[in-house]
Each structure stands twice: as C-alpha cells, then as structure tokens.
Amino acid sequence: MKIGIPRALLYYKNEKFWTTFFDQAGIEYVISPVTTKDIITRGENLAIDEACLPTKILLGHIDWLIGKCDYIFVPRVEFAYRAQMCTKFLAQIDLVRNTFRDREIQLLFYNLHKKGPRAEYKAFKKMGKFLGLKGAVIKDAYTKARQAQQYFEMFRSQAQIQTLRETKKNKVLVVAHAYNIGDKFVGEPILRSLRQLNCEPIIAEHFDAYECIHQFKEISSTLPWGYNQHLVGAIAKYHDEVDGIVILTTFPCGPDSMVNEMITRKVKDKPILVLTMDTQDGTAGLETRLESYVDILNFKKEHAHG
Amino acid sequence: MAENVNNEIIACFPQWGNYSYAFKFLIERGFGVKYMTPPPITRRTLELGSRYSPDYVCVPFKYCLGCYLEALEKGANCLMQIFGACRLNYYGELAAQILSDMGYKFQFMNMAEIKWTSPRSIIEHMKMINPNVSLPKVVAAIPTMTNMIKLIDEFDDYLRHHIGFEVNDGDFEALQKEFLAALEKVENGKQLKRVKKTFLRRLKQIPVNKPAKTLKVGMVGDYYTVQEPFSNYYMEKELAAMGMEVFRDMNLTNTLIKNQWKKRHRFGKKYAKFNPGATATYTIAEALSYVKQGMDGVIQVKAFGCTPEIDAMPILQNISNDYKIPILNFSFDSQTSETGIKTRLEAFYDMVIARKNTTKGAK
Lengths: 306, 363
Known about the structure:
heterodimer, A: 53% helix
C-alpha cells in the first residue's frame, strides 16, 4: 500500500510528524514535488475561480498524485491550538472528493474534530486501524512522530531567535501562513528577494506557537483562528526586535483579509508592507515593492543614527 | 452627528431582513433602552461601508460597517454584533476598531467576546447595553421575540410563494408595510397574537391568480446575502416578476429557533460527509432537497470570497449534474452591476423554460 501526501496546506505544518509516523509504521508513501507553474495551472483548471490560491495548489498536487498511489492523505482538521480553523480545512476532504468524483480516488480517513489533548492521537488511531496497523505500532509511531515534530519546531525556533539576536542586517519579520511561506511558488521568491536586498527574513511562523499564542491578545482580543493567533502573537512578541514587518497573503484569504487590517491598525511603530499573491506569474512588481520598502528601512536606520 | 442630549442609551443592530422589529422588541421591552431601527440600506450605506473596510473582506462586513456609520450619524451609541462559525466571529472587533479609529464614541456589545459557559460574563455583556438591566424582564421578552421572528418568517414565506401571481399590483407590498408598522407597535405577547391573527387572515384574502403548476425556484446561499434583500439586489422580487415561485428555507426560524443542523447534515451526507463549516451544510442540504422536490432550478447567492460557500460550489455542481437541474451561482461584491445580474437571470429563466419544454416532449 502506498500513500500519497500532497505538498500543500497542512503538510507544511506537520511535515516531520506525518513522514515520521508513516516511516515508523512501515507504510510506504510518496510526497508530491514542490509547487511548479504546471501544478498551479492544473489546480486552477480544477478549482472554482474564486477559491483561494492554497486551495488551487492543493488540487494541483492531488491531481499530480492520482495514479501514483493507492490512498491520498487529505486530513480534515477542525481545531488548531484549541481555536477555530478557516473553514477550508473543514471542507477540504469533501471538496477533494467532489472535485475528483469521476476519477478513481481513494482518500485516507483522518478527521480531527475534537479539542481535547488526546484528540489527535485518537484520530491517528482510527486512521491506523483503517490502514490495518496494530494498536501498539500506532502508539509507538505516533509518540515518535509527535516528538520528532516537537524537536524540529523547537530547534527551528531556537535557531531563529539566535539569528534574530546576532545578525547585523536589516531584520524583516515575514508574517505568513506556513503553507504560504513554505511554498516554493508563493513564499520562496519573497525570501530570496529579501536576502538579495541584504535583509534577514525572520519568519513569524517559525517561532514557538504556544509562546506566541500567549501574547496575541495584546493586538486583538477575539481573534478566532488558531494559525492567525500564532502569527499575531509572534508580531506582539517580537516587533520590538525587528526593523520592519512584511505580511504575505494569498488572494482572497478569508481570515487574513480581516486580520491584516487589524495588524496595520494596531502596530504603528514599524513600517508594514502587505503583499497579496495571486496565481499570476512574474515577480518584477514584487521585487520593486520590496526594494522601495527596504529603502525605507535603510532610510529610517540612517535617520535614527544621524 | 446628531447630539444625544439626555445621554440616554440608543442601541442598534445592523439591518438584516425585517428582523429589526423583533430585536427592537427585545431591546425596548427586555433591556429597557431605546432601540434605533437602522436606516434602510441604500447605495450610500454600501459606499460608506466599503470606503472604510479592508479591500477583500466579504460584503456583509461592508454592509454592517455602513449601517453602523449611518446609525452613529443619527445618534445611536450602543452597537451590537453577533458571532458565527466563519469570519463573522471577527466582525465585531474589527468594526469596533475601525469606528473608534475614525473618532466615534460608542459602546460596543460584541457577542464573540462572551464566554458562554460563564453566567458572569453573559451578565457583564448584558450590562453593556443597559447598566440597570433586569434579568427577569429580558427572559420574559424572549418568547415573544421568538414568536415575532416566527411570524415574520411565516409572513415572508407566504409572500415569496404568492407575490408573483397577485391580481392587483402592489397588494402584497402594501400589506407588508402595514404589517411591519403594526409589529413596531407591539408591546406584549397578547398584542402579537392579535396582529398575527388579523394580518395572516388579510394576507390570505389577497386575490391571487396562481396556476396549479408553477415554475419553482429554490434560493440558497450564505446567511446574510440570502436573507437581506438589498444585498442580493432584490433577487426574490426579480424572480417573482418573471412569474416564478420562490422557495427559501434559510431564515432565523429554521436555523436558530428550530435548529435543523443535524437533520440537514444527515440529509446531505451523500455529498458532504463532514461538516464543511458555517452555512455550507444548509446550502448543500437545501439545494439537494429542492432538487429532490422537483424544482425547476436553484439559485445560490453568496458574498464574494465567502469560503464555506465556495467549498460548497463543487458539490452543488455535482448535484446539478446528477439530477440534471440548473444551479446558478451569483457572487455579490460592492461593485456588482445590476444589469449583469438581470441578464444572467433572464438567461436562467430561458434555460428553465427550455428544460421544461424538452422534458415534456420526452414524456
């Protein structure tokens, strides 16, 4: 049996977790390649016009996976950090099932619909039973996978804090969802341009989630979405230590459309640039905007010193 | 801005169908403060709202913000917002932030802030509307309010089924105006019963010329757009003018008072195995039930960028393919052109007629 994992949406949040789990359980899997223009075009043709860019990317990856594996892993997750999720994570399994109805597609059953601390384990247990694994194997694999993900996130967070404290370059806090910043097509060009402009991109999503979530209420008290709580918390925690904030959004992201407005209204002490990405290619416009933004950062720095 | 001389509290909730009369009853009789019926939505409301809202937020937010701005201009000082399963959860805080950045002074009762497990938090938020609130009075007002909502929905339902076939033009609209004026004056449950009796009788007496078989169209869509006639450009009226009978199950009675979520979810399980979030469950199940009832077409109206409704769209397409019934999608933004909608509706009408003729021929 071979499982296909689309490199989209929740994969970027659970990369180590999922791969370790399947490795430990001895299940073969295939991960779709990094997003290319071809994958996006495929997804665009399959999706509704109005659907957001990450959804189109997901459909493109699934389209690539069909025929290369027995089951496709499209998790349905209702809660993140005990808070609400964007409804696209609730609907994606039905969305995929209905979009690819006429083609042979088998979806792996995984549904996280409870908030409790053991909910995730129970959901994995259910999925493991479906795959024909024994209880002990599931428990072992799950524990190891959870640990792997935890350590991965911890080291990533520590390394980032270290660069934040040590670097002499302009520090730019890049605020974007994991599936946007991790994507080769969406997030990568921005990180590359920032590095070329002699800046150090600090990725908000790489900071420890629970530490950040403690502080999101400083900016917005009723923020309902878990992933946005993480990002806003990172801004609240680290905005004193960076030189500027770049917000990367995909069009037309529901949560971000409102949260970005809140951030720009509440955080006044740092220059903020909001970039909205769409399926159109060509990064020239993006680079120009980033260049002028970095000019402002440099000007501000000189001004402060002079 | 109108000066509020006596410092009295004037509460306001954004315009939403005809429900403002029910909310007015709850606020005035239950909470004991003045309620301002929000000014009816016009182009200006939408323009005001979209000028100060973020660019690609869903349109209901723009309507709400526009309503708040117009209400504040007229002297309201206590605004309210409800909570929901989608972006609606964040409406309150963002609207309050935008308005206070603009320099308005007001009290904002945001239901998304309430911790529903703690009675203290509930009472604290009730005191935001009126510091001297009397809990028994509020509780006593709730049954009449729910009855009022049920009556409004019942009235609207009858209207939807018959307005396209009235003999004398404008009969129904005139009666509806009278009905709403009478509702505004209702002070207790007894009076409501009297209003219900007289107006339902008068409603059924209006002469209609309804054929035994009519063209039936079902309306589905997101919570606000389908319920607020201005935000769907009076589509129900437009359809009625073409001589169609309009069906719409989405209203407060069917969602909040008689919660049918579980029933609907079970009904739509063939297409959506899990809860797709917010109103998408209702959209799918209602569309499916309309199709199974043998209607001639289904129209989905939604705000541009409404995530749950977008996720429901492929499912609606599948339903449409399986049962061979046209399902039309309308996306509304602040810039939607009225002519475009009319053209598409006319095309939809032609399609429904053509389909009816071909199926007749086949039999």
